Amino acid sequence: MKPMGTVATLLRIFPYAKKALPRVILGTIAALGAHLFALTIPQFLRNLVNGLQDHGTVEKLVPAVLAVLALGICEAGFVLLRRWLVLTPGTHVEAGLRRTLYAKLQELPVSFHDKWPSGQLLSRATGDLSLIRRWLSFGLVLFVANAITIAVGLAILFTYNWLLGLIFFVSSIPIWVRGFKFEKNYHSIARLSQDQAGDLATSVEESVHGIRVLKALGRGDFASAKFARDAAELRGTEVKKANLIADIWIYLILVPEFAVGASMLVGVWLVSQGQMTVGALVAFFATTTVLRWPTESVGFLLSMTLDAKTAITRFFEVLDAPIEIDDPENPKTISEPKGRLEFKNVSFKYPDAPAEAAPLLDGVNLTLEPGESVALIGITGSGKTTLTALSTRLYEVTGGAIELDGIDIRDLSREELRRHMAMAFEDATLFSASVRDNVLLGRPEATEAELAQALEIAQAQFVYDLPEGLDTKIGEEGLSLSGGQRQRLALARAVAAKPSVLILDDPLSALDVDTEAMVEDALRTVLTATTALIVAHRPSTVQLADRVALLENGRITAVGKHSDLLATNAHYRHVIASLDEEKEAIR
Amino acid sequence: MSMQGVQDEEKIDLTKVEAKRLRARSMRLLLSLVRPVRRRLILSFSTVILSQAFRVVGPALIAYGIDQALPLAVKGDYIALWYTVGAYLLAATATAGLTYFFISYAAKINQDVILDLRQRVFVHTQKLSLEFHEKYTSGRVIARQTSDLDSIKELLDTGGNEMIAGLLYMIFTGVALVLLDASSFAVMLVSLVPLYFLTRWFQKQTRINYRKTRVASARLIVHFVETMTGIRAVKAFRKDTRNNAEYAGLVEDYRAVNAKVIQLFGIYDPGLILIGNLTVAGVLMIDGLRVIDGALGFGVLTAAILYAKRFFDPMEGMAMFYNAFQSSASALEKISGVLEEEPSVPEPVNPVPFKEHSGHIEFDDVEFHYSNGKTILPNFNLDIPGGQTVALVGTTGAGKSTLAKLISRFYDPTVGSVRIDGVDLREVANEDLRRAVVMVTQEAYLFSGTVADNIALGRPGASQSEIEDAARAVGVHEFIESLPDGYNTDVNKRGGRVSAGQRQLISFARAFIADPAVLILDEATASLDIPSERAVQNALRTLLAGRTAIIIAHRLSTVSIADRVLVMEHGQIIEDDTPAALIAGTGKFAKMHKAWRESLA
Q1: Which of A64, A378, A479 has the CB atom closest to B134's CB atom?
Q2: What is the pLDDT of residues B285-311, one digit of tens each?
Q3: What residue in B sits closest to A78 (Cα-Cα)?
Q4: CB count in 10 Å sphere of residue B523
């Protein structure tokens, strides 16, 4: 994609700000109004000074002062108006963007999340969006209003005296030239700094999520050193950024001041020659004072605009990402789910795998009849977990098809597909919510009895002993529970969803032998009625299944009963049963 | 005591005592951050003083130009005018130069302070014990280190420039006006009264609301991080729609408090402009009368008006600074809370030398309760001679993992002591302990970086061949070689493309390369398939020679390599013997072993 121009990029955000736009425009007008009132004040000063010069009286003074007073109040009123108009809608735009980004991120396929560190996503959802809000309700409004004010102010300066006006006009040119150059330099460094901040957020996140590993290996210092390097890099970028800003400040201060100096020289000369009144000169200086802030603000408004541009670019990097795994236009439905799952010549290759690499799955054929449970066996890395992920469309097959009750799963809505199929993952992700909410995640409408049943099947009755029983909030990722406890809750969650197809990815790996036996007994009652695909590493887990399928070199090379395969298939024995030597050793 | 550390962190309405405590804590942190840079701060401060002084000279020179140089110019004498203009340009150049220096110099100081704070928080959270991390969600730790730090950064970015410059500018403008015309200054002095009250009001209103913003923003981050790290489960259980609603609620909470804060500023800022304009009108009225009386020249009138107008110029910037200050004050409150948390397993002040070890482990009358009072180990005694391989067996909750965590000092015993080679672990420097004791857990976390980096985490500085040897030992070498870039393959976020089993093998390689005297394996083979487990076990046989090892496993196959089996129940050892002796007996282990054998058939 070729980089977009600043204006084109900024414009992309407007569809998301449609509702706020009328008020932003009104706000800009209010801002302009406030500035114009401020610019009017010197006019009255001129008349006042000129009036006072030839035998001034109190009668001349009072109306002028009152006029200045009224204008001053109006200016403040318009500033109030501007802020009132723009600020609340701005926060709505920010909130809307945040919701949009979040919803999009949830829509994006797992393969997207594999690629993007969540720190980078987080920095987009927080800092970047508030930057966009500030730019929209503050930067943009003032940029437009200030630019017009400067133009009007210059025109007014011309009315006092064309020569003085010309001095100011000419002097503004270097500021603009410098401004454009600044834009070019600043932009790349702003992007760098935001990306580095995202990387830093990723470091922070990993250091927190991987805290156990860091502690177990005593690598806290090592992580800190890496973090320190990243942070120092960001520091360097920020300092460079500040230098650029400092650079433009020179121009913003120096140029107007030189113009004032030159104006003083010319102005006093003009007055001495009688070509200009003292009042006009006083008003001239008062006007330049009013213009001072709008001129100086050009610097930070420009940098703010560029920061916003970068933030918008980063926002759209996520928004433009293809969803890839989408709902069909006219989704089919399964009215009476039976639970027949069929893999038809399924092949799959991860999108980021090298082009020359062989597909991970290459022509998988497997049928699970309704109510049947099949154990999937294969060595580590053979693609078992990938195959389970394909069947709920966490990834999309690259060839062949998966059918549920005779319907290609791509013809079902994802919502419906995932209602029919529930998964228990190997790493049991729990959310910060009550035990109840976690277990009923797949079917919130389940009854208490069903909940109790699911907990019993998974042998997760320990939850009743938690401080608040089923209402105990379990920590983020369920960290305060043991691995075995988490796994049982994840299993209960899959069971409670009452799907027609259950997918269990090595669901009992963290359980001790006794518990495992109890869970297996209870699971059998469920599995008689439910189709199940069970990834297994252990003979004990294999016992749960009616049949076993062996995954080897991307294909199913053997299907049959455990005992038969054990007797006939050497690779099968290698994968699952070659514990003979251990048996010997322990005997 | 209330408000200690991160306790009551989400409390909004504080009592006076509590608020004072938080302020004092934040202030201490701020001062400690400023101390190392104080010399440079003074230099930067001096440049501000000078630059603002030069800046203030301007209107006075204009006044001089109109009142003195103009009459002379009318008479044809332009020398005074030239001098005035020259002085004006000189002052302007000085202002610009000093401002340039100040901005870039102050940025360096600010960035150093931020860097310092970032590192302090990072290092401190790394030091905090697991107990802290288990109750303080990771999302909140992340919020402290991202959004809270950003708000402090914003304070420094705007603050350094605006606040000091603004304040000085106001003071100097005041001084200049006193020198130029004291009675004009008197008018301006009056304006300070409403200014004071307006600011007081603003400050009071915002403080509470900023506290709310920090809390709301942390909740937003916690939810966000959890969703993104658990995206598979989110999708599989169709939590996305519900999540959208939940997140929308949090977004709206944050928006509402944020809007409130912004609105307050929306009143404060026009209030400042109003006071400024009223002052200008006041000065104009009084000085106008004096001009009529002939007591004042037009030049001074102009200067007085310019000063009165400019006097309030920096107020907006200062208000913005104040805004950032309030926001970061709440952030500082939260961060200082985290920094106040003491590691519950503190480093010893005078560590006992601990270099050579045989790995002899002793538990001496150890009791252990969790902070909620639940007893895990009641009066526990155990002696593991150096070099022994011990298997720990028992049901979930029997206390096996606690035992492992006590040896690796993730926790300290509530009563009694745990010793290695006769030294209480509480007296061993963390670095020495970690070199001696390494634990591999079921949760195999991979950090972003290459596979080689992840293995080398066990021993930074390990050579490529050492890394490969470790990988070969656990049988993961071929797999790594098959990756697109071999050992240099980037394992993206949370080891996305590496299966759970492979992840566990890599973390095994990590432990192998660490080469500790005591190795603890807590369910470390749970996700391995049988061929991998066999490879690991073969590797363990050689690796464990001459080392003490504690193996916790449900898979009794692992037990075969142990010299000794401990069967635990309710925090106590109920059987303790060689595997062969236990299998031959009639105890719990014999039963378990029988059941396991049957499951293999």
Answers
A1: A479
A2: 888 888 888 777 777 877 887 787 777
A3: B270
A4: 26
DSSP letters for B577-591 = E-HHHHHHSSSHHHH
* Cross-chain residue pair A58–B289, CB shorter than 8 Å: yes
Provide the residue range defining the domain that includes B164.
20-340
Q: Residue A320: CA atoms inside 13 Å, Cβ hemisphere, count?
A: 10
pLDDT band at B133 (very low <50, low <70, confident <90, very high): confident
For A472-489, what is the mean pLDDT? 74
Picking from A81, A272, A480 by the largest number of B CB atoms within 10 A of its own CB, the best residue to mutate is: A272
Of residues B74, B444, B526, nearest to A510 (C-beta): B526
Q: Is the pLDDT of residue A584 over 50?
A: no
Give the minimum alpha-carbon distance from B303 to chain A in angstroms, rounded to a whole number: 9
Fold annotation for A9-194+246-319: ABC transporter transmembrane region fold (1.20.1560)
User: Is the four-CA dihedral A465, A470, A472, A476 of positive or negative sign?
Assistant: positive
Torsion over CA: A37, A41, A44, A50 (sign): negative
Q: What pLDDT was estimated at residue A557?
A: 92
pLDDT score, position B599: 67
Verify whether the Cβ–Cβ distance B510 to A515 is below 8 Å: no
Do A250 and B532 count as a contact with CB atoms less than 8 A apart?
A: no
Q: Least CA distance to B260: which residue of chain A?
A: A88
pLDDT of residue B493: 46
- The answer to whether B500 contacts A426, with C-beta atoms less than 8 Å apart, is yes
The secondary structure of residue A500, as a DSSP letter, is S
Cα distances (angstroms) measured from residue B136 to each of A299, B7, B94, B548: 42, 10, 52, 33
Question: In the predicted model, what is the mean pLDDT of chain B?
Answer: 83
Task: Return the amino acid letter for B191.
Answer: S
Domain final residue, candidates B340, B374, B402: B340
Cβ <8 Å between B442 and A286: no
Cβ contact, residue pair B130, A211, below 8 Å: yes
Rounded distance between C-alpha atoms, residue B592 and residue B598, angstroms? 10
- The CATH classification of domain A341-429+500-586, taken from the options 3.30.450.40, 3.40.190.10, 3.10.20.30, 3.40.50.300: 3.40.50.300
CA pair distance B558, B544, nearest whole angstrom: 13
B242: part of which helix (H) or strand (E)? helix B239-292
- Please answer whether residues B396 and A487 qualify as being in contact, where contact means their C-beta atoms are separated by less than 8 angstroms: no
> Which pLDDT score is estimated for B252?
93
Predicted confidence (pLDDT) at residue A34 exceeds the cutoff of 80 = yes
CATH of the domain at B481: 3.40.50.300
Contact B224 A110 (CB under 8 A): no
pLDDT above 90: percentage of residues in chain A: 19
- From chain A, pick out residues whose CB is under 8 angstroms from the CB of B114: 235
